[in-house]
Amino acid sequence: MAGSPDVAAHERANHSAYSDYDRVPGRLARGGRDDLRGGAEQGAAKVACMLSQVLGRARSPWCPVILGALLIFADAFCLKDAIIGSLILIRQGVIAGFVGAGLLLIGVPRALMGKSHEVRRQRLRNLAIYFIAVGLVFALNGANSHIARTRAERLVVAVKAYEARHHRYPQSLSELVPEFVDHVPLANYTLLPVFNQFHYFPSERGPHLLYFDMPPGHPVYSFIRDQWIYLD
Question: CA angle 145-149-152, nearest 5°?
Fold first, then answer.
């Protein structure tokens, strides 16, 4: 009979079994999400551990030494301007400036908050290496800036002497050789040709001489104005 206790109990058992079966995909999905969440947390922990070592917790001094050398190589000998279109994104010395500010405002307080004397000593040692690298970037950029300005002044004198003798300005700096200069020098000691050369622009209204330098702008000598101006 449909209403007997045995039949009703059997139907409830079947319904419970189907309900448990229907809930299996949900359980599997939740288990998969839990596994993914656990894997993501483990991955984030590994990345955080690596970053903490890079930012000053490395026991060996070679990690900050290598990173400091890369900073010097990039910001003192390679990077002068990172340009996309007409927008200047990064200028010479800017990376070192941000690194130095981060070390001072974040790195030093974190180093002093170390749980043990050994940890604080290691972090301060690494920070000292980074500070030395930042200082060397600015020292090398300053030396390159001085070299470029000295050589630019000599080229300005040579161009004026050329104009006084020939009653016209040269069309290129190579016309100054060998009568007025032995050779056209490099502007500074960097690796990329566009940044380590003088750029001379002849014009009917008067030529201009440009070279790349540290901020706030690029020095340009106007022979008509007979003065240095700075481009952003």
Answer: 135
* Among 144, 136, 169, 134, CA closest to 155: 169
Q: What percent of the chain has pLDDT over 70?
A: 67
45-88 pLDDT tens trace: 555 455 444 555 556 788 889 989 998 988 888 766 544 444 44
Q: Does one domain contain both 92 and 123?
A: yes
Q: Could you read off the pLDDT of 95-137 as tens digits, one per residue?
A: 888 899 999 998 899 888 877 888 888 889 999 999 999 999 9
Q: Which distant-in-sequence residues (6+ apart) come within 8 Å of 91 by Cβ? A: 80, 81, 82, 214, 215
Give the end of a domain, one of 142, 163, 178: 142
Do 36 and 129 belong together in one domain? Answer: yes
What ranges make up the beta strands (E) of 40-116? Answer: 81-84, 87-91
Domain limits for position 103: 25-142
CA atoms of 107 and 55, how far apart (whole Å): 8
Task: For residue 84, give the 3-state DSSP assignment.
Answer: strand
Token pair listed for 115: 């749980």
